[in-house]
Amino acid sequence: MIPITVVDVQDAEPLVLEVLRSGVIAQGPMVKRFEDAFASVAGVPHAVAVNNGTTALVASIQALDLQPGDEVITTPFTFVATLNAILEAGATARFADISAVDFNLDPEKVSGAVTDRTKVLMPVHLYGQMADMGRLVPLAQQHGLTIVEDSAQAVGATFEGKPAGSFGIGCFSLYATKNITTAEGGVITTSDDALADKLRVMRNQGMRARYQYEMAGHNYRLTDLHAALGIPQLEKLQQLTDARRHNAEALSKGLDGVTGLTVPAVLPGREHVWHQYTILVGDDAPVTRDELAAKLTEKGIGNGIYYPKLVFDYDCYRDNPQVIASDVPVAQKVAEQALSLPVHPKLTDAELETIVSSVREVFGA
Ligand SMILES: *Cc1c(COP(=O)(O)O)cnc(C)c1O
């Protein structure tokens, strides 16, 4: 079996033991060390660690002091956490369609979703490739919107040399399957000193110094035990990303030109960090996406459908007045055709060849 993802945190052992021996196991010096390393990866002065990526999104929106009815524009083709965070923070979600080329928000569709209640633009840098920030940033400026980047899948990705999480308020996930993991965890990145300060106070029950409360806060803290897991990975992030890139290139070289199969595009000016390697199974393919997925599973090739449906297209959101569904034909089509293949850094060249030949076999190519 070739798994779709592999977790490797073994070189964190010395740091984890250091935490255990220190007796400081909740938020302490290791979180600070992790934050400093993360801030430099994201190219910003501040990284605020929190207990997961969803919390990072919630806290970022909460810090903006929105009013009920204020709106966030995001993509319908994302993990459910993007939507759940908007709802938990009390805002209303609107959706603009995506581009089938990079799977991200299509800037041309965003203007049509702006209303006089829109306050936030929340692009998701899906699969590890950044959204078209060259056009989204001016759009946000034109409409007076704050950018919150859901960078959960894009640690280390860049757009014209600028890292994910440095264009707006950056929100990262450190969940077990993400490119960098602390088992569970999240990070908020910002260049805004006052915002970073507010998030740090909010994270710790609204407390600046012991029992001095400045706001109704929360417990959003990450632990030193978790931070210790992430530090060695941050140190070798470039190596890990290079391995993912090598694997993606091998897959694309092997799968390019197969009729009915579209390999993922890397757009000019963008450094893709390959959280997922996602192909499209077109209408002209000899099999459907679901048939391909089943056949690959049979052959022992891990694969994943991220995501089978649009995020708002579930009964639990149907009657929610904070969820404003819209017509998004491109995202609808992509949700029917997208399939992710293994691209994680542990793949061997032999496994890459097996993945390529198995897919080609199912396509009869
Ligand atoms: C993983 C993920 C999140 C949520 O992160 P958690 O750490 O699991 O809470 C949010 N958005 C996207 C796009 C994700 O992939």
Task: Give a verbal description of the structure.
- This protein is of the alpha/beta class and 365 residues long.
- It folds into 2 domains: 226 residues, Aspartate Aminotransferase, domain 2, CATH 3.40.640.10; 127 residues, Aspartate Aminotransferase, domain 1, CATH 3.90.1150.10.
- Strands 1-9-8-5-4-2-3-15 form an 8-stranded mixed beta sheet, sandwiched between helices.
- Strand 6 and strand 7 form a beta hairpin.
- The longest helix has 19 residues.
- The protein is globular.
- The protein starts with 12 loop residues before the first helix and ends with a helix.
- The protein binds pyridoxal-5'-phosphate.
- Pyridoxal-5'-phosphate (PLP) binds next to helix 3 and helix 4.
Class of the largest domain, according to the CATH hierarchy? Alpha Beta
CATH fold topology of the largest domain: Aspartate Aminotransferase, domain 2
Alpha-beta content class: alpha/beta
**Spatial order of strands in the largest sheet:** 1-9-8-5-4-2-3-15
The tally of strands reads: 16
Order of helices and strands: HHEHEHEHEHEEEEEHEEHHEEEHHEHEH
Per DSSP, the total helix count is: 13
Shape verdict: globular
| Heterogens | pyridoxal-5'-phosphate
Q: Flag low-confidence runs.
A: none
Organism: Lentzea sokolovensis
Enzyme class: transferase
GO molecular function, one term: transaminase activity
Protein name: DegT/DnrJ/EryC1/StrS family aminotransferase
